[in-house]
Amino acid sequence: MGAVFALLIALGLVIFVYIGAGVIGFKALFAVVFPYAAFFIFLGGIIYRIIEWAKVPVPFRIVTTCGQQKSLKWVKRSRLESPFNNFEVALRMALEVLAFRSLFRNLRAELKGPNLLYGSSKWLWLGAIAFHYCFLIILIRHLRFFTYPVPEFLGIIEQVDGFLHVGIPHFYITDGVILAALSYLLLRRLADAKLRYISLASDFLPLFLIFGLVLSGILMRNFFKVDIVQVKEFTMGLVHFSPKVPDVGVIFYIHLTFLCALMAYFPFSKLVHMAGVFFSPTRNLANNSRAKRHEPAPWWQKPKFKTYCEWQEEFKEVLEQSGQPIDEDCYKKEAK
Amino acid sequence: MAKMPKPDELLKSIDWTPPEKDWMDDVPPEIKPGRFCYPAKKNILEEIGFPNPREWSPLDDDWKLPSNSREIIVEGIIDRLKKYRSFKLFMDICVRCGACADKCHYFLGSGDPKNMPVLRAELLRSVIKGELTWQGKFFGKLAGARKLNEDIIKEWFYYFYQCSECRRCSVFCPYGIDTCEVTMMGRELLHLVGCNINWILEPVRNCFKIGNHLGLQPHTVKENIEFLCWDIEEVTGLKMEVPFNKKGAEVLFVTPSGDYFADPGIYTMMGYIMLFNYLDIDWTMSTYASEGGNFGLFTSHEAMAKINAKIYHEAERLGVKFIIGGECGHMWRVKHQYMDTATGPAPKNLETPRSPITGTVFEHAKSTKMIHICEFTADLIAHGKLDLDPSRNDKYVVTYHDSCNPSRGMGFFEEPRFILKNVCNNFYDMPENTIREKTFCCGSGSGLNTDEFMDMRMRGGLPRANAVKYVHEKHGVNMLACICAIDRAALSTLMDYWVPEVQVCGVHELVANALVFPHEKKGERKRELNLRQEPLKPEGEENA
Amino acid sequence: MHDAGKVIPGIIIFVVFVTLPFWWNVGKAVPKVEVELPKEYTSCVEDKSFMIREHMKLLDNWRNEVVRNGYGVYVNSKGQTFHMKFQEGCMKCHSSKERFCDRCHNFVAVKPYCWNCHISPEEKKGWATKKSNVETFSKQPASHH
Which long-range contacts (CB under 8 A, 24 or more apart) does C58-62 make? Predict the structure, then answer.
């Protein structure tokens, strides 16, 4: 049901743009108002979320250690999985953010007869990493619409990405891979009973929005072509705060509106994991809490507990009977 | 206590396919016998000043919750979202990728989909969305949001006490989301309306009032330890000394009280006593701070700190130089990650731990001033300070269970293995994906090691037991060593059920078996028995 | 705010990265593109908006037809016929690569490989003045792939 709802939203978006920009021709709304609004919601929203997290203290050092701690000198420790200082933490985080280290550990449990087996299962990691890196490259590639002259490295990325020379203009490898990765990420949610059970509409919506974004992009580049010069004049206008509404096909507006929807949705959805992963206290702290004192959170109050002297008073008789020493200091203090 | 099915029947009953019905509508949960713990008794709650003390049962329709439960809990959520970044963040960033789904031992053993870590967190997350966010208020179920009601409180009670806070899921989560934090918060919230379990809160009460989980009074602690000393004398012919509450000693030793009198923990306790006597170091135990373990950790951060604070208090009073902690799982999570921050700084009389035998300075504990007994012993062995005869453990083929908390809350993997390899000749690790940071819970952690919870304990322990069975069949393993007092009790039950050929021991039981005392070295008295007072060699073989 | 020492630099990096397109262009004028259209002709083989969007596809088809199928006549949407010729066809009217093709291509950073083989009118002029080159130039391009 969640999937259907999300799909309907994505399709509704297409119809909305088709009518709004195509039929009614209210292009300024889609070309100027939405992009600026979405961009500032994205930027402001993410900063807001970050500050909201940062306002909350991390009271305890709850590192999840995935490797040997630093203890005796001759015990080989794991700097990446159980970092002892901030430099090692930075390395651990880099591995987590850039290589999805934890996802790479993934196992699949199977119950075969009386035996529980755990096999390596890297598909999710592969799908996730393919998706994220393709998205990044595609974003970077789009910088050609926001720069003039276009920097050399963008040309190189484009050449490499299009090096298969399929179709005119060349079909990008990243476009194909991201479609495959998205399909995988979507299908696993639908095909695996466990995932279907846990998936919400808000898990499908980002997938459909990105699907729409990618598909409309590919269609625009390779099938329903638009006047790319006008498009660039428009994008350059956007970054100079003097956008000129382009007179191009509705496919462009569909592409743009998917992007706006995604940007505006980003800070208020699970997509904030992009920023949130940096805040994860099980990963971004050093496992050195016995070596270095970490001050408690401002709200923390040391507990009141039954002191030795109070306890001794209560158990004095049995302490004496069983020959355990009585601490006379307790009475001295009282006398003072 | 519910009747347990036979192991093969239980295995056949496991089905990981989730039901058709949407999980959000599947409330209240069907409370199954053997899968819930008895609620905390009225007088216990009264004594520790917890809200809503009353007589009730999870099987009742009416849980006698306060009429404003919803307000109380929502307020509690808001409060905690401001205090714990972990909680706020983990509620925000889960993408439900499902990597954690089949990592939970309770899910693997029960197939109950709400035991998938992602869903366990979602039980709370959905309420936060429904009560506190505009998306949730506007889109409701479509945004995965629910309004809090009594049925959901029942669901929380059922499932937050089916999580052992083992943190295995957090190893696999791409964002490090730690269900332990979620469960801790869930339990704290449940306390606000008086839904909690006796197996945790009675020990907490005992700890607050008397000094240890079991409620052993000071004379009883001493008597128990003296019994153990007599047993050691039978085995070694030596009189052991255990100083209590000794001012000016160099080392304060704390360990879970379960090891004072429960089999097989007592053998580990004997191991400590023998080691300290062998080394002739200046040590003391305390009958006041007579608990190393900390069921407060399973209750609330405040209760945890309240129990732990006694240790520093006692270390200060006795004027010791540093503290050694015995083998215990969750205790070491507290000592390693919470103690200093929550109850420190360490009293001024404490110094950076320095082994009086080898001179090794334990720099990694220079702030907390507390080291693990295995760190201490591993250092001794590495310096050749222990005369060991590993052949005394030859009747054991040993494997090692990494306890959850030292593994994923400390990174404690090599020290105990180093010791084991030096004190016994036959050591085999379990399969890679079931040990170290990927280790499985005993099925009874976080205060769930109670008899009425047996069905879930045996199910949750299945992944661990299955890996033991593997090395038992492959290498003939018959002894499961561990460094946790809950394990020693819980794994014994688990092995009896799944792999009855395997026994359970602490690492220091094996150390003490192998330890050659000077008079034994000189040949004045030969060790014939192990600490369990069984012949050292397998039956039929002569003691050489 | 806690951990301000890490959070604030983090936010700055994020903002800088996301607003890159804006500050990249600070102080630069909005670029303008003007192509020089042939003065003596008013229509191309197809209408203007089609040519703007689809010329690359059309030229690609022409190349395939000529080189692979040996077929050389294009019938447009109005039924008119044209020889499929690039240097002798397209570039006859659009007599400057630099002032026609390159203006747009450079603007949107497109690098068509027409010129790997073909020779632009500008280049041709330079070549034709050298006698020794005349022979070489009259040959067909070698590598239509």
Answer: C59/C86, C59/C90, C59/C114, C60/A168, C62/C86
pLDDT value of residue B542: 52
Distance from the A3 Cα atom to the nearest Cα atom in chain C, whole angstroms: 30
Q: What are phi and psi of A101, to 5 degrees?
A: -50, -50
pLDDT by residue (tens digit) across A227-279? Answer: 999 999 999 999 999 999 999 999 999 999 999 999 999 999 999 999 999 99
C83, β-bridge pairs: C73
Give dist(CA C127, CA C129) in Å, integer: 5
What is the second-level CATH architecture of the domain B390-521?
3-Layer(aba) Sandwich (3.40)
Q: Which of B8, B86, B125 to mutate to test the interface with A (most CBs of A within 10 A)?
A: B86
Min Cα–Cα distance to chain A from C1, Å: 4
The ipTM, to two decimals, is 0.94
Domains: count for chain C: 1
- The H-or-E segment that residue B121 falls in is helix B117-132
> B410, A287: Cβ pair inside 8 Å?
yes
Q: Give the pLDDT score at A333.
A: 63
Per-residue pLDDT at B1: 54
**What is the tens place of the pLDDT at every residue in A189-207?**
999 999 999 999 999 999 9
Task: Check CB contact of A55 with chain C, cutoff 8 Å.
Answer: yes
Q: Does A116 touch chain B (CB under 8 A)?
A: yes
For chain B, residues with pLDDT lower than 70 are 1-2, 538-544
Q: Is residue C145 part of a domain?
A: no
Task: Enumerate the domain spans of chain A.
Answer: 2-279, 305-336
B363 near A CB under 8 A: yes
Which domain, by its residues, includes C95?
4-137
Q: Which residues of B touch A118 (CB under 8 A)?
A: 431, 433-434
The shortest CB-CB distance from C108 to any of A54, A232, A240 is to A232
Q: How far apart are CA B514 and CA A28, in angstroms?
A: 84
Tell me, which fold does domain A2-279 have in CATH? Fumarate Reductase Cytochrome B subunit (1.20.950)
